[in-house]
């Protein structure tokens, strides 16, 4: 992915949603509806013998016997980007438990436009419908100051089968220089899936290595010139799954999408992972100094899907 800058463009945005073949304007007047979240099994089921039924960590008697988490209410995910969720096949913010019924919507506050070179943008869409979505395509129509269309560019969101309330990142790129674009018209389209997907995974982040740092925890790295590294995997909680894939996105301090990556299974793993199987993805490595040095401190979002 090319670098996405940090400026806010003074663009006139016209946002339309295409859902079920019908084009609808996105408004804030549609009543909100609660949806069922794809919650993970309790810790006592995921880690039997490690956690008890109350979610308390089991310890030896000489270590205190058990350690329980603090009691607190369940935070609502209703359109609050500050609340991070850990759900089946997903980890991160911008997942909502209350949808508007407006189909697939663009999350304006997450849009991050290139500041120089060719026009590009990274951002998030979200499924605000009451059913699973299929393949989402984001189209930007670029216009000049006179309102003349310069170019139409599209990109598919890498996460397919979005569940109600679930976001997905996207990146749209153009060959048009940034300074020529005065206005953007958006269209978000959704088409059915050709192959069913499953999302029944416990997403696992194993470690991140900072960019440009030669030593981590007293041990020398062997990957000079020391890219940023993300190591992630999953535990399969459902049926046997083929061709699992990881999608990762990083949000900057303003909540805008800074970078998007994807990864397939690491070498050594068979293409089909059985129930309760654990697998690793290829390490995600970023070497661009302008981006890589920032990623270790940014908000990380992760998705896992498979066929």
Could you walk me through the main structural features you see in this protein, from its secondary elements to its overall organization?
The protein has 307 residues and is mainly beta. It has 2 domains: 12-33 and 95-191, Immunoglobulin-like (Sandwich); 201-305, Sandwich (Immunoglobulin-like), CATH 2.60.40. Helices cover 4% and strands 45% of the residues. The chain contains 2 helices and 25 strands. It has helices at residues 43-46, 289-295; strands spanning 12-19, 22-25, 33-34, 57-58, 66-67, 85-87, 90-92, 98-99, 104-113, 118-127, 135-143, 149-156, 167-177, 183-191, 201-209, 215-216, 219-220, 228-236, 241-242, 245-251, 257-264, 272-273, 278-280, 284-286, 299-305. The strands form 8 sheets. Strands 2-1-14-11-12 form a 5-stranded mixed β-sheet, with no helix packed on it. Strand 20 (245-251) and strand 21 (257-264) form a beta hairpin. The two termini are 25 Å apart.
List keywords for this structure.
307 residues; mainly beta; Immunoglobulin-like; 2 domains; five-stranded mixed beta sheet; five-stranded antiparallel beta sheet; globular; disordered N terminus
Blueprint of the fold:
Layout: E1 12-19, E2 22-25, E3 33-34, H1 43-46, E4 57-58, E5 66-67, E6 85-87, E7 90-92, E8 98-99, E9 104-113, E10 118-127, E11 135-143, E12 149-156, E13 167-177, E14 183-191, E15 201-209, E16 215-216, E17 219-220, E18 228-236, E19 241-242, E20 245-251, E21 257-264, E22 272-273, E23 278-280, E24 284-286, H2 289-295, E25 299-305
Parallel strand pairs: 1-14
Antiparallel strand pairs: 1-2, 3-8, 4-5, 6-7, 7-25, 9-10, 10-13, 11-12, 11-14, 15-18, 16-17, 18-23, 18-24, 19-22, 20-21, 20-25
């Amino acid at each position: 992915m090319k670098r996405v800058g940090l400026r806010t463009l003074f663009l006139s945005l016209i946002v339309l949603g295409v859902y079920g073949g019908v084009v609808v304007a996105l408004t804030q007047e549609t009543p909100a509806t609660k949806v069922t979240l794809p919650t993970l099994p309790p810790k006592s089921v995921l880690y039997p013998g490690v956690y008890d039924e109350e979610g308390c960590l089991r310890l030896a008697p000489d270590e205190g016997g058990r350690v329980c988490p603090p009691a607190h209410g369940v935070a609502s995910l209703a359109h609050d980007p500050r609340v991070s969720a850990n759900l089946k096949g997903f980890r991160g913010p911008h997942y909502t438990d209350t949808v508007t019924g407006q189909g697939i919507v663009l999350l304006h506050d997450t849009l991050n436009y290139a500041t120089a070179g060719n026009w590009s943008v990274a951002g998030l869409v979200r499924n605000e419908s009451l059913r699973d979505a299929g393949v989402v395509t984001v189209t930007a129509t670029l216009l000049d100051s006179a309102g003349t269309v310069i170019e139409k560019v599209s990109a598919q969101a890498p996460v397919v089968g979005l569940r109600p309330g679930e976001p997905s990142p996207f990146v749209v790129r153009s060959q048009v220089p940034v300074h020529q674009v005065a206005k953007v018209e958006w269209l978000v389209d959704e088409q059915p899936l050709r192959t069913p997907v499953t999302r029944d995974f416990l997403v696992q982040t194993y470690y991140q290595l900072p960019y440009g740092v030669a030593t981590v925890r007293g041990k020398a790295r062997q990957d000079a010139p020391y890219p940023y590294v993300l190591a992630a995997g999953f535990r399969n909680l459902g049926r046997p799954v083929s061709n699992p894939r990881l999608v990762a996105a990083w949000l900057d301090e303003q909540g805008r999408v800074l970078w998007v990556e994807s990864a397939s299974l690491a070498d050594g793993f068979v293409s089909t992972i059985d129930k309760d199987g654990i697998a690793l993805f290829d390490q995600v490595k970023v070497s661009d100094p302008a981006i890589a040095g920032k990623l270790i401190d940014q908000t990380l979002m992760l998705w896992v899907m498979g066929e």
